[in-house]
Design goal:
heterodimer; A: 291 residues; Glutathione S-transferase Yfyf (Class Pi), Chain A, domain 2; Rossmann fold; 2 domains; 4-stranded parallel beta sheet; 8 strands; B: 207 residues; mainly alpha; Fumarate Reductase Iron-sulfur Protein, Chain B, domain 2
């Protein structure tokens, strides 16, 4: 199947591993990702905090461009996914804002007619491809991995019917089918603080410390996540957290597509694993092969 | 609230500024799908209880709605609360009455920036402003520039603390050193100019 692809600013830099692994996984499963031509920044939370119509307009420019091809948009970054989805939702429900946005877009020959769907790769893999199909194509087993599945907030909230808001299970089911063990992780949808790590570092560090603690207490040897910001908050600040709270964390944090890619037989280079700050021991996965 | 003679507050009477803020706020809330649910708030406090950062807020989410009903928008806008909100939507999904708390807080953020009401020594809005500056010109965000400009506006010493992590990420190829631009920045400028004009137009009639 063909999809429009919206990487977003973070997948080009801080979450390059996510971009690399999403491409690997979709290609391996026989689906095409076509990057939206000349996409622009979705605006993230910052633009929405300043101007309403303008932020909807810059977000809608991407939707209008994707509409020309007619395929569903896949946006891996949970924040971009939420913003594009929200824009779509607001424009569908508010005629006045829709008119304003289209008036601005028409200045450059674009128009948005609400026909595009915005989707997250996790949901696409589970619903369009199917867990059984992915498991049947696995070349390696994920046995030995004890994963704390961290969904974060943007992918399940506000409710869009993507998964249960309190106890989502898509990533859990997918990884289980590939042989991994999911540890009990009640904080699976607790906020990591997002940009608070920059604006309010004390609060940000505290929130992430609780998440790491919960994962460690339940004997996870890996945290798997869907969002670039969550990944950076959980991975890159462990030293600062250790210093402040006198803890001893050294927990690898990966993107779910990197784990799926490993099961599908991808090399660490293919999946951007060499970009992790906290190395993940591939020992377990290397040795076991499926018959 | 307006103060009458001898400084007595006059119930039911709003001063000009408060009225203006209130009207702008209500207009924004109307644009939120499901925004009118704010009328249904029963002050149960579930939003505050579920909020991961309410412990550090000066006014809690529940209190924001209570203060709004008491006609104290100025107080709300001068609080740190709206800037600490991490936009995690926990409050929104748990509210038994369906109040769109997070989106209401976004409206308050916009109102505060428009009216330049900020809590003292509180430059969080500077991050949003820097971000918007870059996106308007490049069409993409430029993280190193963003962090640099934010730290310079707030506390330059923070940069030293960030340096080791910056180096580590750079060595892994996770920093975009040079700003990137979209191909069609001219088109983007045209769209933005039109959107700016439209932003300030308040329609006379409802749909």
């Amino acid at each position: 199947m063909k999809y429009s692809y919206y990487p977003g600013c973070s997948l080009e830099a801080s979450a390059k591993g996510y971009d690399e692994s999403v491409h690997y996984v979709f290609n391996k499963l026989g689906h095409e990702l076509n990057e939206i031509d000349d996409w622009n920044c979705c605006g993230a939370t910052y633009y929405m905090a300043t101007k309403e119509t303008i932020s909807l307009v810059i977000s809608a420019r991407n939707l209008a461009k994707a509409e020309k091809k007619g395929w569903d948009i896949i946006a891996p970054c949970s924040s971009c996914y939420t913003i594009l989805y929200k824009t779509n939702h607001i424009l569908k429900n508010n005629r006045i804002l829709r008119e304003k946005v289209n008036q601005a877009l028409r200045k450059v020959g674009l128009e948005y007619n609400l026909s595009v769907q915005v989707r997250h790769p996790l949901e696409v893999l589970v619903n369009d491809v199917g867990i059984e199909t992915i498991a049947s194509k696995a070349k390696k087993t994920l046995e030995g991995l004890k994963i704390a599945q961290y969904y974060g907030c943007q992918i399940v909230r506000p409710e869009r019917g993507l998964d249960d808001k309190d106890n989502p299970r898509m990533m859990d089911d997918l990884c289980k089918a590939l042989g991994a063990e999911n540890v009990y992780f009640p904080m699976k949808t607790r906020c990591c603080g997002g940009m608070l790590m920059t604006t309010y570092p004390d609060v940000g560090l505290g929130l992430n410390k609780k998440l790491l603690e919960c994962a460690e207490e339940n004997n996870a040897n890996l945290i798997v996540t869907t969002c670039p910001l969550c990944q950076i908050n959980l991975e890159a600040y462990q030293n600062k957290i250790n210093k402040k709270f006198e803890t001893n964390f050294r927990m690898p944090v990966l993107f779910f597509t990197q784990i799926i890619g490993l099961a599908l037989g991808g090399s660490p280079q293919d999946l951007g694993l060499h970009r992790s700050l906290i190395p993940f021991d591939l020992g377990e996965i290397k040795r076991k092969e499926l018959r | 609230m307006t103060k009458g003679k001898e400084g007595q507050p006059q119930p039911g009477v709003l001063d000009e500024k408060e009225k203006e803020l209130r009207d702008s706020f209500l207009l924004q809330v109307k644009n939120i799908p499901g925004g009118e649910s704010i009328k249904k708030c029963i002050q149960c406090g579930t939003c505050t209880a579920t909020c991961p950062v309410s412990y550090t807020m000066d006014i809690t989410p529940r209190e924001i709605i209570a203060l709004f009903r008491a006609k104290e928008i100025d107080t709300i806008l001068s609080s740190r609360t709206i800037w600490i909100c991490a936009s995690c939507y926990s409050c929104t999904v748990r509210c038994p009455q369906g109040v769109k708390v997070t989106d209401i807080i976004y409206s308050l953020k916009r109102l505060a920036i428009e009216n330049e009401i900020y809590p003292k020594k509180f430059p969080v809005y500077a991050l949003s402003n820097s971000f918007v500056w870059f996106v308007n010109r490049l069409g993409l965000s430029y993280e190193p520039g963003l962090i640099l400009s934010y730290c310079l506006k707030t506390n330059p010493f923070k940069l030293f603390g960030m340096f080791p992590m910056f180096i580590k990420l750079a060595l892994k190829g996770r920093i975009g050193f040079f700003p990137k631009k979209i191909k069609n920045t001219k088109n983007l400028s045209k769209i933005l100019k039109e959107a700016e004009i439209l932003e300030n137009i308040i329609p006379m009639q409802e749909s």
